[in-house]
Design brief:
Elements lengths: L6 H4 L11 H11 L4 E9 L7 E9 L2 E5 L8 H7 L5 E4 L3 H11 L6 E3 H7 L8 H9 L19 H12 L1 H15 L2 H11 L24 H21 L3 H4 L2 H10 L4 H5 L6 H20 L14 H21 L3 H4 L2 H8 L10 H16 L4
Parallel strand pairs: 1-4, 4-5
Antiparallel strand pairs: 1-2, 2-3
Helix pairs in contact: 5-8, 6-8, 10-12, 10-14, 15-17, 15-18
Length: about 375
């Protein structure tokens, strides 16, 4: 397939330059219905909001390429019903953000999914290969690097911008067909199925305010009592950002959260003295912030982050043994070592009890039992 365009791409049917009303959407859905797979991409904006604003959906099958305008169509439910069908395979490149946008609308991401970036990594390409590089490698077509910072909320959308958007799915069809066949030949299709199933886990896209503290790496070195206050402040900010649909940093910056946890202001006046707390934020959320601080001060003592520790000699030896074997197996399989196991994956395997991706699934079948044996070896 390299260096040429498939028959599907030559035969593409474009019903309208841009689907902008319910009637045109119904026609498109009729054309898409019954297809076993649909290549998809989304354009969105989130610079001023907590949740991404969906601005454009691109969809393609062997005979259709279409751009759908969700800003103009009152109800895109018929299209979403189609995309959420378990009988339709959804093709994305680097799907995580696209799935997050859809999960914000429907409460969960669509499934099943075929992520061509993951598929490419399993087929021996770089594990973070971009869409343009993958398209050029497989089809021979070089995509122009234009409009990467386009304002997708602006209307009308210029013809060249629509063409750019179409290309995000036009060549995705050939990329999918090529990689699907290659993974079948390599016997790795089940590997991809497992990886993409993890990507469509609804829990991955839930931003639980009670877990928001995990984003604040600065808290790791704080005293346990301060960590508890920071946890409550992070939970408050996450809830405030969600309810107001504002970026977290627009509510209160990370540095201000840490400063409040350290200084524990007890009044609105003291709160106003914290750098990074605007007068508007203090007026709007001041009482809630003070309540969060008090909850943290009253919380049952515990350390949220584990204290940083240095691995002992035996742990270092175990890590090096396992890392060397990961490197050797990756080289034999023709894939990147980080695809088999990251540093964190190896550390989780070494811990007691062992956990992580190396203890289950295709990685366990490939060499996980061997790694567990290496883990048990005691150095002289």
């Amino acid at each position: 397939m390299t260096g040429r365009m498939s028959e599907a791409n030559r035969a593409s049917y474009m019903p309208e330059p841009l689907v902008q009303d319910g009637a045109a959407l119904a026609v498109l859905c009729d054309r898409l219905r019954g297809e076993p797979w649909i290549a998809l991409d989304t354009e969105f904006m989130r610079t001023k909001t907590y949740r991404a604003g969906l601005c454009l959906i691109q969809a393609a099958t062997p005979g259709v390429i279409a751009c759908i305008d969700p800003l103009a169509i009152t109800d895109i439910g018929p299209l979403l019903d189609l995309l959420y069908s378990p009988n339709v395979l959804k093709i994305f490149h680097s799907a995580r953000q696209d799935l997050e946008v859809l999960a914000d609308i429907r409460g969960a991401p669509p499934a099943p999914v075929f992520d061509t970036q993951i598929a490419a990594a399993l087929a021996g390409y770089d594990d973070q290969i971009g869409y343009g590089a993958l398209v050029e490698s497989i089809t021979g077509h070089k995509l122009p690097k234009l409009h990467t910072r386009a304002d997708w909320e602006a209307r009308p959308l210029a013809p060249e911008l629509l063409h750019y958007a179409e290309d995000d799915v036009r060549y995705l069809r050939d990329v999918y067909l090529f990689l699907a066949q290659k993974l079948e030949t390599l016997g790795r299709r089940e590997w991809l199925t497992e990886e993409c199933a993890a990507l469509t886990d609804a829990a991955l896209y839930r931003n639980d305010p009670r877990e928001a503290w995990r984003r604040l790496k600065q808290g790791q070195r704080l005293p346990p009592k301060v960590q508890l206050i920071l946890r409550e402040l992070a939970a408050w900010r996450e809830s405030a950002a969600q309810s107001s649909n504002l970026p977290r940093s627009w509510v209160v910056a990370d540095t201000a959260l840490v400063e409040m946890a350290l200084t524990t202001p007890a009044s609105l006046e003291q709160l106003g003295g914290i750098e990074g707390i605007s007068g508007g934020a203090a007026r709007k959320w001041g009482d809630d912030i003070l309540d969060a601080i008090r909850r943290g001060q009253a919380a049952t003592p515990e350390r949220l982050w584990d204290e940083p520790t240095r691995p002992d000699r035996e742990e270092q030896a175990r890590y090096q043994r396992i890392q060397a074997r990961v490197q050797a197996v990756a080289e034999k399989q023709g894939i990147k070592p980080t695809l088999l196991a990251t540093r964190k994956d190896i550390q989780r395997l070494i811990e007691e009890p062992p956990s992580g991706p190396l203890t289950s699934g295709w990685r366990r079948q490939l060499f996980g039992d061997e790694l567990l044996q290496l883990r048990a070896v005691v150095s002289d």
